[in-house]
Design a protein that fits this description.
Distance between the termini: 26 Å
Radius of gyration: 20 Å
Order of helices and strands: EHHEEEEHEEH
Largest sheet: 4 strands, antiparallel
Structural class: alpha+beta
Strand content: 25-35%
Length: 152
């Protein structure tokens, strides 16, 4: 049984860092504009910058390095988590339908998501390379046709 391994696109980490930086700048300007107390503004600015630095340089890199996807001839699996490890596995025969979400310029941003909806839940494959997302969809689609149900 052949197993395919996938990892998240590293472009997405840079994109997430840019988005966090933009959000921090907006929050700081909003705090300075709407809050007249300088001490409160200072506390907000320091707190927001500390949270952003933790998220951008500690949590997100650890999270991206922990994400692993694998696909075999019969199932797709996901393993992720920084502080709490989560392992999910779904058989292709139990998939009801699939949603693919791609952002504009997704080959540069890494915002390609596949959501497999199964009986009682869903499996989300996040931050895939565009080529990996297409390969997973082709693999899952070809398996569904070969399986015990007919997909037109």
């Amino acid at each position: 049984m052949k197993q395919y391994e996938y990892e998240p696109d590293r472009h997405c980490l840079s994109t997430m860092r840019l988005l966090i930086t933009a959000a921090v700048v907006i929050i700081i300007f909003a705090a300075k504009y709407f809050i007249p107390l300088e001490n409160v503004v200072f506390i907000i600015v320091v707190s927001v910058i500390a949270i952003a630095i933790f998220e951008m340089f500690i949590h997100l890199p650890m999270y991206f390095s922990s994400i692993k996807y694998s696909a075999t001839e019969t199932e797709v699996s996901k393993s992720s988590g920084v502080f709490i490890k989560v392992h999910q596995s779904v058989r292709y025969s139990s998939i009801q339908y699939t949603t693919i979400i791609s952002s504009p310029f997704s080959q540069y941003t890494g915002f390609n998501f596949i959501i497999f909806f199964v009986y009682g839940g869903q499996l989300r494959l996040l931050f895939l390379k565009q080529s990996d997302a297409q390969e997973i969809i082709k693999l899952s689609g070809s398996i569904s046709v070969k399986g015990d149900r007919h997909v037109p």
